[in-house]
Amino acid sequence: MTLSRYLVALGYGTRKEAERIVRQRRVTSAAGAVLRDTDAYTHADVRVDGDPLPAPPGSVILLHKPIGYVCSLQDRPPMIYALLPETFPKRTPVMASIGRLDADTSGLLLITDDGALNHLLASPKSHVPKCYAMTVAEPLRGDEAERLATGTLMLKGETTPLRAAQFTPTGERSAEVVIHEGRYHHVRRMMAAIGHHVDTLQRMAVGPLRLGDLAVGAWRLLDAGEIETLRAAALAHKATAKTLAKGAATQQGV
Ligand code: URA
Question: Is the pTM of this model over 0.90?
Answer without folding.
Answer: yes
